[in-house]
Amino acid sequence: MNPANYIVLSAVLFSIGAIGVLVRRNAIVVFMCVELMLNAANLAFVAFARMNGNLDGQVVAFFVMVVAAAEVVVGLAIIVQIFRTRRSASIDEPNLLKY
Amino acid sequence: MSAPAFGMHLADVVPFNLPSIDYRLIAPILILMGAGLLSVLVEAFIPRRGRRPVQLIVVFVALLAAFAMVLAAAGSRAVTAEGSIAIDGPGLLLQGTLLLVALLAAMLMAERMVDPSGDAFAPRASTLPGSEDERQFTQRGYLQTEIWPLFCFSVSGMLLFVVSNDLLIMFVALEIMSLPLYLLAGMARRRRLLSQEAAMKYFLLGALSSAFFLYGSALLYGFSGSIDLPVIADQITAKPSQSWLLMIGAAFVLIGLLFKVGAVPFHQWVPDVYQGSPTPVTGFMAATVKIAAFGALLRVLYVALGGLQWDWAPMLWIIAILTMVVGSVIAITQTDIKRMLAYSSIAQAGFILVGVVAATREGLASALFYLIAYAFTTIGAFAVIAMARDSSGEATHLSRWAGLGRKSPIVATAFTIFMLALAGIPLTSGFIAKFSVFTAAIAAGDTWLVIVAVLASLVAAFFYLRVVVLMFFAEPGPETATVAVPSVFTTVALAAGATVTVVLGVVPQPVLEMVANADVFIR
User: Which pTM was predicted?
Assistant: First the structure.
């Protein structure tokens, strides 16, 4: 199968993620959308590695997985703490800081 | 070609060689990472009473040792770790500045005299705000020492960020730098709801920006077949036809970096995070993240995307103008001093971008000088903000600062020095910094940009000087904040910030020569 199709798929996934970040209201879902964007980048890296005929892109994908895992740890810690304080994971509710 | 054949083919033609790594040149990064790991172990094995002194020793020794290694490497110009890390003049200069500023920030974070109940951090970040647990931990005088491993890892990420020579290392360094900061932002002892909100906003927007950076890297990799910045540059000159992979990739990478810099329109997180974070963390973040992010931005623009200058220069022109104008104008309307300094930092990022857009050797040198001057001034200003208090914590509302100059003349004078420097008044570092940036921009032909910059700095001067007027020309009332008597930590940080600000304004020549001799980025 033509690897260029995977690039298109990754662009679609990235866009879905970006739109999700903008429109969703639950912090967990927003965060999942960010992870979708990271994985779209991974798919693009692997597909480009195949097209370019070198391994750099596959190596990057491994590093990104590790970084994304670390990000989940930090992110969920922050979101869970907010949820325990406010009993809600909505990103609209914490609005003490504005203007 | 099937997948196994592809793998075998590579194994045949690429023999495995051990990568050559110059450990002496990357020692500062390794020292800070080692210190981070060590202080995790300290958390695990040292009894609670003894943790704080041990942690402080680990952190300060690591920072000083790393700085010594940077000094020892001065003048080096080498690409090491198989092309992943580029040690050169600007990189070393930024690393040295980062370490000195981090040292001052560590002193602010270690301060525990100004708040009667402890330091600036929650006794246990895991307890709920206002709960019985929190009250008991506070009463027993618990201190959160987990901030120190986070601090060390963050600094190591910054040191790596400014010398990374490929997009993968740059992404990893970006995350090592940011992830601890997201957590530190949420750990304030007082006004914890604000602090947690700041942490969440910082995290979600930061993660979004790093996703953009990563996807941009993927597209640049698709264009050039490599993630090394110099190879990307070679490919841009080798393939003159404009590819959408290159254009979108470059734009996404720049968006990721401009977000960290706090440039308009990617600035939304700055005011909230600066206001909500514990003040020592705000000072640390305001000074060091700006240095690290501009270091990486300059390297990407000058090394990888130098051949695209005609494409990114107009875009950065617009962003620089927006950043200066929006930052300066909105800062006027602010009533909270931390939020005002946040918008001020946005405006300052715009002034530094003026030097970046110049894209000449002078432009690079002036941007470096501006970063050094700005970092020391900022850390000093936040040291003062941490000291102006009332019974409920820090008094950050501007009205509480009225008459502070009559009550505590020395501290108010120090704050005046910082405000004058940020406004760019002669005999302070800020004037020399603005002057050299504007000169470089005019020499590069960006006269209109400089005119806008001068107008924006006039607007900015208004809100900086308003604080000075408020402190010295208003009568102190019952509402005026009291300046807490700090320990030697804050005193040293404040004195160092003020001294550097004045010295760079009066005798800037040695540092100006240093940035001029730092040469350009290695390719």
Answer: 0.94
